[in-house]
Structure formats: C-alpha cells, structure tokens
Amino acid sequence: MSLPSLRLKANADRRLRAGHLWVYSNEIDVAATPLHGFKAGDQAVLEAAGGKPLGVVAMSPNNLICARLLSRDAKLALDKSLLVHRLNVALSLRERLFDKPFYRLVYGDSDLLPGLVVDRFGDILVVQIASATMETHKDDIIAALTQVLKPSGILFKNDSAARDAEGLGRYVETVFGLVPEWVALEENGVKFEAPVIQGQKTGWFYDHRMNRARLAPYAKGKRVLDLYSYIGGWGVQAAAFGASEVFCVDASAFALDGVERNAALNGFSEKMTCIEGDVFEALKELKASEERFDVIVADPPAFIKRKKDLKNGEGAYRRLNEQAMRLLNKDGILVSASCSMHLPEDDLQNILLTSARHLDRNIQLLERGGQGPDHPVHPAIPETRYIKSITCRLLPNS
C-alpha cells in the first residue's frame, strides 16, 4: 500500500520522538502537505520537516488532533495483520493479569490502537469504534477478533458522542454470531450479568475492578450506600463482601432492575434496597429520614466532560461528597471516585478535605486507586489516566 505523506513543521517531531502519539493541526507544514488533501479515515506516512519517516498515522484532518500514530514503522499500515499482532500483544497482558476472560482487551492509544475499545465477556466481545480510520477497517477488526479470540458473538456498540467529531453515525449492531441482551461476567469472585446492548458504554465498567476489590474489609457487617449504582458493580460486591444491608441509588429504573437481577444471581436479594431517583434528591430525603450508613460509595458519571465544565463540575463533586458525608456514622468510610479526566486527583483530595472541614469532621485518607491494569496508562498521554478513587475515614472533630 502506497500512502501519502504528512509533513511536520521544523522541530514539531520532538514531542513524538519523546513518546507521544498525537499530532496537532498547527504542527503540520500545510504548504507541503495541506490538510484539506486528506479525509477522515485516511492513513499517511508522517514525516519530520526534513522528510525522514516517523511512522504511519490515522488521519482526522478536521480536528485539532489531526493525526494519531498507528506505528513507528512507515511500512506498517493498519490492516488485518497489524490488528492481529496488536490484539495478541494486548491479550498476552490480560491473560497474565486475570485467570478468567472478563476484562478490557483493548484500550485505545494505550494498546496502540487509537479509536478502538474492546471489552471481553467470555466469548462475547463488545467493540467501540471512535475514529474514522477504525471505522474504515471494521471488517478487518471483525476478522482479526475472530481469528485471535474465536468469539461466539461480536457487538459493535458505536453509539458514543466521540463519533460525532469524526463525522461518524451512531449505531448498535451485532456483527458476528449471536449476542444476548444480558451477558455473564465475573469480577472479584462475584457473578454479574451486564446489559451490553441497552446498557451504558459497553454494558460494564471494568475500570474500577481493583477499587471495588478494596471495598471488602470495609463492607463486612456494615450498612452500605451505593450512589449512582448502575447495575450494582459496587453494591452487589459489597453484599458479597459481607455487608449487612446495601442501598443502591440510581435515576434509571432499568439499571436498578439490573441491581436486583445481579443480587438475585448471587443470593443477596434480601440485603438490597433500591432507590430510584436523582441522587442529590435521594441524599436529601435520606438525611431527612435520619438514615445513617457505615460505608458510602460515591462513583458518579463524569461531572467534568470538558475543561470549560471544570468550575461547575468541581462544585458538583463538592456537593455530592459533602452530602454523602452528612449521612456517615461517626466512624464512617467514604469511597469517593471520579472518572473525569480533567479533575486531577489532588483536586479531588482537596474537595474531600474542604467538605470534611465544612462539616467540622476530621478526615483520614486510607487508600488511593486508579483504573485497573487492563486500562494501561500511556505515560506520554495523561488523558489515558482518568479514574481516581480515594477511600477515606470520617471521624468526629474531637
């Protein structure tokens, strides 16, 4: 395959040579290689200002990040063969980490497959494509996945807003075999079923696996409140870890049906109480009812989706954690999590301290967690690190 060239300005290759994978539109020598000569989904050979090849990139010419490095070998363009190789490399890590086939198999840039996410549920694969280049090669993706993993079903869950910037339509489609509405998985020894077709994202959030495992010593024999529970990832595991009671709060009746389904699957239905409604309103009602909990998990959706949302988002995290703290017993545990890429962990820690002091309580930070190793962080791309989890203890101010 003969690919066109994409030429960088002088010295614009330094960041890429240092390990980064992204090319910004203002780094392109548009006199030599105008961006309007490319369309979204094209591949090109990236060249330094002097013409030396730096590798192959996937093009998004209308975006600020106009290209992403696929390979540092100018001869290795994206095709089925490269996909098979990258999948085998990704699989070797996950099989080293986990004894059962339930994990994120591909995590975009971190697995050198920008714009591609694959979650594995045994022999069912759920795929998210967020780039035009990957969309162009979706048949190769299917062929590579079937060759490497021999699945019984592959679902393309291509309904995210990330596709809009690439000019891609949204759709959900079974592209290979059969995919049921609910698929089985196991996490930390607890059985679940995830709604891969109708659920959020791929149907499950593997990223908090390690943080949920850390809940075990805190939950035993305790009364637990799980905020933004979705289908019970935290709450059902708390019950499995020996919690005496678990309350799950979510605005979605469909999600809470999933909580009940997964609680029954593990024999914990009698421990679970589901509350449907806005979490902030539910917190006020629980406070008015003088309910108290030993452990509270606050794992909301991203309150800060863009940098311009930072101020309002920080305020939302502050309100959530402060209201949660008001419901904690004197020696209570709060697990505060964030999936907002734009909220640094130190800022979340400061929010927790400020909230505790506003309530005149002492706070101890006990554990910190990030995303699991099946969501590896690319050290040159801080955007690949998004999960924060802080376990803290709230005590009276005396």
UniProtKB/TrEMBL annotation:
<dbReference type="InterPro" id="IPR019614">
    <property type="entry name" value="SAM-dep_methyl-trfase"/>
</dbReference>
<dbReference type="GO" id="GO:0032259">
    <property type="term" value="P:methylation"/>
</dbReference>
<protein>
    <submittedName>
        <fullName>Ribosomal RNA large subunit methyltransferase I</fullName>
        <ecNumber>2.1.1.191</ecNumber>
    </submittedName>
</protein>
<dbReference type="GO" id="GO:0008168">
    <property type="term" value="F:methyltransferase activity"/>
</dbReference>
<dbReference type="GO" id="GO:0003723">
    <property type="term" value="F:RNA binding"/>
</dbReference>
<keyword id="KW-0963">Cytoplasm</keyword>
<dbReference type="GO" id="GO:0006364">
    <property type="term" value="P:rRNA processing"/>
</dbReference>
<dbReference type="Pfam" id="PF17785">
    <property type="entry name" value="PUA_3"/>
</dbReference>
<dbReference type="GO" id="GO:0005737">
    <property type="term" value="C:cytoplasm"/>
</dbReference>
<dbReference type="Pfam" id="PF10672">
    <property type="entry name" value="Methyltrans_SAM"/>
</dbReference>
<feature type="domain" description="S-adenosylmethionine-dependent methyltransferase">
    <location>
        <begin position="184"/>
        <end position="376"/>
    </location>
</feature>
<keyword id="KW-0949">S-adenosyl-L-methionine</keyword>
<dbReference type="InterPro" id="IPR036974">
    <property type="entry name" value="PUA_sf"/>
</dbReference>
<feature type="domain" description="RlmI-like PUA">
    <location>
        <begin position="6"/>
        <end position="72"/>
    </location>
</feature>
<keyword id="KW-0698">rRNA processing</keyword>
<keyword id="KW-0489">Methyltransferase</keyword>
<dbReference type="InterPro" id="IPR041532">
    <property type="entry name" value="RlmI-like_PUA"/>
</dbReference>
<keyword id="KW-0808">Transferase</keyword>
<comment type="similarity">
    <text>Belongs to the methyltransferase superfamily. RlmI family.</text>
</comment>
<dbReference type="InterPro" id="IPR015947">
    <property type="entry name" value="PUA-like_sf"/>
</dbReference>
<dbReference type="InterPro" id="IPR029063">
    <property type="entry name" value="SAM-dependent_MTases_sf"/>
</dbReference>
